[in-house]
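[Automated response] Your request has been received and processed.

Submitted sequence:
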Amino acid sequence: MHVAPTAHFGQDLLIFLGVAAVIVPLFARLKLSSVLGFLAAGVLLGPYGLGALAGQLPWIASVTFVDPDRIAGLGEFGVAFLLFMIGLELSWDRLLRIRKLVFGLGPAQVVVSGTAIGLIAWSLGAVPRSAFVFGAALALSSTAIVLPSLAERRRLNSAAGRVSFAILLFQDLAVAPLLFTVTLLAARPGAGSGLAALTALATGVVALAALVIAGRLVLRPLFQLVAQTRSSELFVAACLLVVIGAASVTAMAGQSMALGTFIAGLLLAETEFRRQVEVTVQPFQGLLLGLFFVSVGVRLDFAQILANPGLMLGLVAGLVVVKMAVLMPLGRLAGLPAGVAREIAFIMSPAGEFALVLI
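Generated structure:
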């Protein structure tokens, strides 16, 4: 019997809600991060975990995530909602106060880390273009993992939290130029790919500028109009419209959805509706971010890791050591205390999800 796609989607949501109902209180009682719980649940219930038994035991397909792509798209909204909430807390004024970190330490970390990793890849036999891609990709860290982990430990407003956020913000801004550069490196002479990539980059810049202008003109009147109706349902709809609309605009322009929602959050932070929007969006952000981590866990194939454990662990450890060796002296040069520089190095040393996109 053919099962409609919507039935599959509803099944995945039911499984995820069941996971959330168990994981969050259980890991809170164990004083562990719920991020680890969602990742573990994704691994256990994914196609490389219990889902692998669906061929022998068909009923298992009804309680596992057999197709990772079905939840991946919705999970990406978790990161977008997270950046929206951070934008609400930040505002343009606070962003300007950390601009030296965003455009000072941020590019220094990406350039120096990327150069070091690229040179190591080149020395191991990678051609120059491939070495550049490896360096650029692995220099980036994971916004989706770092920020929720800091938030759970109430460290976002600490010195290390602010510096981590500044570096991650620059990394998100750098993704579009890096994608453009990688496309140019892959383009064949006369193929027109370079012009297409340049057009895509220009489209992204125009879309972000339009988003800022439209947000300044529309957001406050929109929420004032909604507030006059005194309808909580309409207020929720307006909040979701802004977040999903901003994410869609930047996604269609070839940019990160999270960047669009971050800008929308910054714009709403300047209005009198900031706190009410924050309270309204928080539950959606928590659930969708959990779904994102489940979707990451679903894609992890531990059989591949166990097939070459020494190589895998060595590569991961090498990456962490190289990035820490770069970040600690850069932090000290930026005037950070030794303890903060060391904490930043630990936090930012793993690679992020955009590495897969670039590679």
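Summary generated for your ticket: The chain has 15 helices and no strands. Residues 193-229 form the longest helix (37 residues).
If you did not submit this request, please reply to this message.
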